[in-house]
Amino acid sequence: MPPTENTPTAPSASATPAIEFKDVEKSFGPTTVLKNLNFTVAPGERVTLIGPSGSGKTTILRLVMTLEELTGGYIYVDGKPLTFEERDGKRVELPKKRTREMTTRIGMVFQQFNLFPNMTALENIIEAPVHVLGKSKADASKEAKELLERVGLADKADAHPTRLSGGQQQRVAIARALAMSPEILLLDEVTSALDPELVGDVLGVLRDIAETTDITMLLVTHEMQFARDVSHRVMMFDSGQVLEEGPPDQIFNNPQHERTRSFLSSVL
Ligand SMILES: Nc1ncnc2c1ncn2[C@@H]1O[C@H](COP(=O)(O)OP(=O)(O)OP(=O)(O)O)[C@@H](O)[C@H]1O
Ligand SMILES: [Mg+2]
Q1: Ligand 1, residues 58, 239, 243: which to mutate, most atoms within 8 A of Cβ?
Q2: Between 121-131 and 166-178, two packed helices, what is the crossing angle to 10 degrees?
Q3: Which of 53, 67, 242 to mutate to test the pocket of ligand 1 (most atoms within 8 A of CB)?
Q4: Which domains does the chain show, CATH number per domain?
Q5: Where in this chain does the record put each ABC transporter domain (predicted)?
Q6: Distance (Å) from CA 150 to ligand 1 centroid
Q7: DSSP label of 68
Q8: How many Cβ atoms sit within 10 Å of the Cβ of residue 31?
């Protein structure tokens, strides 16, 4: 892959991290998927997770979204504990209410565009702003229309998901996440379920968000050119551990580990 000139420069790592994993462990029953995982993501930084199937990428995003229970360690968002905190040397679970407050600043888009099927595109987008943030329907609808315009779907406000292509549904899902003004956006293989001709529009929308906002992004993708263009940093996972990490040029052009090389040759 040729190097691109517009590889973004990483934001300052000195600020309080937007996301911090500290000694994170995640088990499903007897199976430990993540062990002693430590990493930080700076505010405004865009980090792509790559690695073989089953290496724990989705689990990491789902832990940040609090869709999975953290079985060990701590996750901090903006320096504040997300689900557990350390108090007098003990690991204490936070009240659910506080966790919920924290997650309102986090948006996630999944591989399967899971829109509410019984709602129009616009209704999908205003649902959380109205019911979680308490916005008026009028205000939320005005913002939703702007977001639909931004993702190229100004004419689809009243369409139900079944009337939209996969790519259009995914763009509605992105608009729905943006409607909550997230500080952090988690993207898990958002183009993998799409027909190839629909991928470009979705990536175009994400490139636009990357270029025009300072939302912190943690993403999983097999679109390596896209990863190279938008990421400040790429982290290669293997068996729940960071095998190596660095700027996209370094990871894609000069990987240090044989396992990274073989992974990249399998996806490029
Ligand atoms: N709910 C679950 N119950 C049991 N095991 C699970 C569960 N979710 C994930 N796992 C296991 O955790 C490991 C990591 O899964 P994860 O989905 O995070 O991998 P991934 O890197 O996202 O893989 P892929 O590239 O295929 O999406 C796998 O071995 C998987 O089988
Ligand atoms: Mg996954």
Answers
A1: 58
A2: 20
A3: 53
A4: 15-105+217-268 (3.40.50.300)
A5: 19-264
A6: 33
A7: S
A8: 7
